[in-house]
Amino acid sequence: MDQQQLLHISKQHMWLPFTQMSDYEKDPLIIESGEGVHLKDIEGNEYLDAYSSLWLNVHGHRKKEIDEAIKKQLDKISHSTLLGAANVPSILLAKKIIDLAPERLTRVFYSDSGATSVEISIKMAYQYWQNVGQPHKKKFVTLRNGYHGDTVGTMSVGSIDIYHRVYNSLLFDSIVVPYPNVYHHPSDDEKVVCEQSLTELGEIFKNHHDEIAGMTVESIMQGAGGMNVMPNGYLKGVEQLCRKYNILLIVDEVATGFGRTGKMFAVEHENVQPDMMTLAKGISGGYLPIAATLTSEEIYQAFYADFKEGKTFYHGHSYTGNQLGCAAALANLEIFEKENLVKQAEEKSEWLANQLQEIAKLEHVGDVRKLGLMCGIELVKNKETKEAFPWEERVGYQATLKMRELGMLTRPLGDVIVFMPPLSATYEELAEMLTILRKGIEQVTEDVGE
Ligand code: PLP
């Protein structure tokens, strides 16, 4: 099929996620292939993939070891979900993940996307309290602008405004607490923000712990809600409060897991031991849809009983523990070991921090936030007052379109530009991406800034 036909059909029949299709009609993009950190469209244009294909591609595209692991698995079996049966790659992967995860976590429940891994954690937490005889503990606490996925359950334990406006009556209520957002806080002292936020959270726990099942929280860095980094010590403080008030701590590592923040899991920055941890995206190196919800042994044991007691966890998807996905994930984790990738990410993170200082000086860059190779650049109309650009100008979106013209793909979150390159990007490739990032921001803000 030629380019024109593909384009025509895509406009006639496709409906793309999180996309206003009128934008796609104006600026369509159809990817045909990828190699390393490069993507190529059907017209032969090449782009640097500066957001790891929605934050998941770890080693670049077409990583030989993962390609081969998938082919090898294809020769055995591609998929079987027989309820009550395990499969070989999923067992091997469970052992690998548990060896890497915080020691409190001993069990792996598979699924196929980040949203389902969180959805599962909510259902588990809810049922856990029933199983241990405290059914009144039903509510969830979440942070302002938290994002845990787009299913009905995960939208409910998240706090993205647009979801709550559009899908309001579909959702159940959660208790939303302010995010310890240093840049947008009246005090820009990280320590003050941390202490105040923990005090507020402590008050809520004190007054409502009898009805709270768990707290869902993105690990150290909040992604889709604006690329916000918690002050030092905040997540540790949340953990202590959860323990004090008997509330399950559900840490979402869907975006931050697998080296993204310069540690295998972001909880390691503060030695936090969650009761549950959700994983997806980088788990298969960005290859296949596989996800996991990890739990403590205590949670698992609350479900372990004679069948007649009704404590079974009632959940499972057709593609649970898919063999190809598990084989890809195993190969992915072997590459982490072989290439000492977490260490590499840590080193690149330091280098990147220095480079981003130059971007932070640009006239319309209000704030640069980063943890490891997870970065957000907030564009503002006025650097002094932090006044935002009018939303209808879509400055973030325009900047990413400009970057696309210059040969790099990334994504805006409002006026925050996401910069999340694959961990495998070389220093040279990172430098190339930063040049385009800078040019894109300069060119767009010159046009709209005055
Ligand atoms: N949790 C977090 C922290 C995320 O960033 C995302 C996706 O961006 C999700 C959950 C949902 O993951 P998925 O898109 O795989 O459903």
Automatic annotation (TrEMBL):
PROSITE patterns: AA_TRANSFER_CLASS_3. The record marks F18 as: Participates in the substrate recognition with KAPA and in a stacking interaction with the adenine ring of SAM. InterPro entries: Aminotrans_3, Aminotrans_3_PPA_site, BioA, PyrdxlP-dep_Trfase, PyrdxlP-dep_Trfase_major, PyrdxlP-dep_Trfase_small. It is an enzyme of class 2 (transferase). GO terms for biological process: biotin biosynthetic process. Its EC number is 2.6.1.62. Pathway: Cofactor biosynthesis; biotin biosynthesis; 7,8-diaminononanoate from 8-amino-7-oxononanoate (SAM route): step 1/1. It is found in: Cytoplasm. Pyridoxal 5'-phosphate binds at G114, A115, D252, H317, S318. The modification N6-(pyridoxal phosphate)lysine is found at K281. Pfam families: Aminotran_3 (PF00202). It catalyses: (8S)-8-amino-7-oxononanoate + S-adenosyl-L-methionine = S-adenosyl-4-methylsulfanyl-2-oxobutanoate + (7R,8S)-7,8-diammoniononanoate. Substrate binds at Y147, K281, G316, R411. One of its GO terms (cellular component) is cytoplasm. Keywords: Aminotransferase, Biotin biosynthesis, Coiled coil, Cytoplasm, Pyridoxal phosphate, S-adenosyl-L-methionine, Transferase. Residues 328-362 form a coiled coil. GO terms for molecular function: adenosylmethionine-8-amino-7-oxononanoate transaminase activity; pyridoxal phosphate binding. It comes from the Bacteria. Homodimer. Catalyzes the transfer of the alpha-amino group from S-adenosyl-L-methionine (SAM) to 7-keto-8-aminopelargonic acid (KAPA) to form 7,8-diaminopelargonic acid (DAPA). It is the only aminotransferase known to utilize SAM as an amino donor. Belongs to the class-III pyridoxal-phosphate-dependent aminotransferase family. BioA subfamily. This is Adenosylmethionine-8-amino-7-oxononanoate aminotransferase.
